[in-house]
Amino acid sequence: MSISEVEQKIAPKSSMDLVTAAQTLHWLDLPSFYQQVKWVLKKTHGVIAVWCYTVPKVNSAVRKVVDDEYRTIDFPFEPVDGLENTGAVEFVYVKVMDLDQFFAYIRSWSAYQMAKDKGFELLRNNVIERFKCAWSEDDNDQKVVKFPVHLKIGRVGNI
């Protein structure tokens, strides 16, 4: 969006207290998005909070994909009062799940849905079998699954 579209469709200049983005920052044109955020946020105290989640952690046998958890993503904002930096701060959501619930979670991912729409099944029988072996290594059908959430928070400052 152009700044005029932001003003027309979202909000006037320096009028917003808070902008949030959940699990999207890595998809955006950051320079353009940050320009829009800085334009719409109230000067010196407007806050931006962005967060992402990463692959849940089950146990050492269940493989996971590691990403940078927003630690290295460009984030040109000042720390909010009370914090030394803009993060990323990790929070953890904990849920007890069985393997079918875990597969339902995986099937909810946009990457899974995109692959499926293109005719590619990511959870093929051999993958499911490997998960079953890893999941059942301790003979417990229920697992504590930890969902890490990584938050970056900053304020627009004097611009």
Question: What's the helix-strand series?
Answer: HEHEEHHHE
What's the CATH topology label?
Answer: Rossmann fold
Total number of beta strands: 4
How far is the first residue's CA from the last residue's CA? 21 Å
Shape: elongated
Strand content: 15-25%
The chain-level mean pLDDT equals: 84
Rg, alpha carbons:
20 Å
Q: What's the CATH architecture name?
A: 3-Layer(aba) Sandwich
Number of helices: 5
Describe the protein's architecture and organization.
The longest helix is centred in the first third of the chain and has 11 residues, at 30-40. The protein has five helices and four strands. The model has no long low-confidence stretch (mean pLDDT 84). The chain is elongated and about 55 Å long. The protein starts with a helix and ends with a strand. The chain has one domain: Vaccinia Virus protein VP39 (Rossmann fold, 3-Layer(aba) Sandwich). Strands 1-2-4-3 form a four-stranded mixed beta sheet. With 159 residues, it is of the alpha+beta class. This is Methyltransferase type 11 domain-containing protein. InterPro entries: SAM-dependent_MTases_sf (IPR029063).
